[in-house]
Write a structure and sequence with these properties.
By secondary structure, this protein is mostly helical. It has one domain: Up-down Bundle (Four Helix Bundle (Hemerythrin (Met), subunit A)), CATH 1.20.120. Helix content is 65%, strand content 0%. It contains 6 helices and no strands. The longest helix is centred in the last third of the chain and has 29 residues.
C-alpha cells in the first residue's frame, strides 16, 4: 500500500511537470512523461530490494549504473546551461552543444535516464520490472526521436550533420540498435 501511495504522489508531480507536453503527442515531453513514469515504476517496484545483499554482483552493477547516471546527468545539464545558452528552461538551448558528452552522443540526459532505469531494474529484476524496463527504453527512444525532429527544425543542417557524427545514446558500435543515424 505504501508503494502505491508513493507512486501516486510522485506520478502527480510528474504529471504537473509534463502537463503542457501531454497535450502534444509530437513533442518530446509527451514521450518523456512515459519514460519518467516507467523509471518511477522501476524504483517503486524494487524499493524493498534497494539495499538488500549489498555486495551481490547485481547490486554492485546497479550502484555503478546509478552513479554513472548521476554523473552524466550533472555533466549534461551543466553543458546545456553553459554552452547551450538556454532561454528560459534548460532544454530551450539557443546553441547546438557539441562538446563533452555531446561530442559523442546526442542525448546524454536520456542516456542518464536509461542508466537510472537499468540501475533500478537490477535492484530487483523480475518479469514485471523487465517489462517496465522495455517500456522505458521504447519511451526514451521515442523521446529522442521527437526531440531530434524539433532540433532539426530549430538548428537545420547543423543538427543533421551532428546526427551523422554522433550516436543516439551510447558511443560504441553496439548501440546501433539504439538508433544511430548514419
Amino acid at each position: 500500500m505504501l508503494e502505491l501511495s508513493v507512486f501516486a504522489v510522485a506520478s502527480a508531480g510528474i504529471v504537473a511537470i509534463s502537463w503542457t507536453s501531454l497535450a502534444n503527442p509530437r513533442a518530446h515531453g509527451f514521450y518523456r512523461f512515459f519514460a519518467f513514469e516507467s523509471i518511477l515504476a522501476l524504483v517503486v517496484l524494487n524499493a524493498r530490494q534497494w539495499f538488500s545483499h549489498p555486495f551481490a554482483v547485481r547490486q554492485i552493477l546497479s550502484w555503478m549504473l546509478l552513479a554513472a547516471s548521476a554523473a552524466l546527468a550533472a555533466h549534461g545539464f551543466h553543458l546545456l546551461r553553459v554552452v547551450g545558452k538556454p532561454e528560459g528552461r534548460v532544454e530551450n538551448t539557443t546553441r547546438l552543444v557539441r562538446v563533452g558528452a555531446y561530442r559523442h552522443i546526442r542525448h546524454p540526459l536520456y542516456c542518464a535516464l536509461l542508466l537510472l532505469g537499468l540501475g533500478a531494474l537490477l535492484k530487483g529484476p523480475s518479469l514485471v520490472s523487465g517489462g517496465v524496463a522495455l517500456v522505458m527504453v521504447g519511451a526514451l527512444i521515442a523521446t529522442a526521436r521527437a526531440e531530434e525532429a524539433e532540433n532539426l527544425a530549430k538548428f537545420g543542417d547543423a543538427y543533421a550533420a551532428y546526427m551523422k557524427d554522433t550516436w543516439m545514446f551510447l558511443p560504441f558500435p553496439g548501440s546501433r540498435a539504439a538508433g544511430r543515424e548514419r
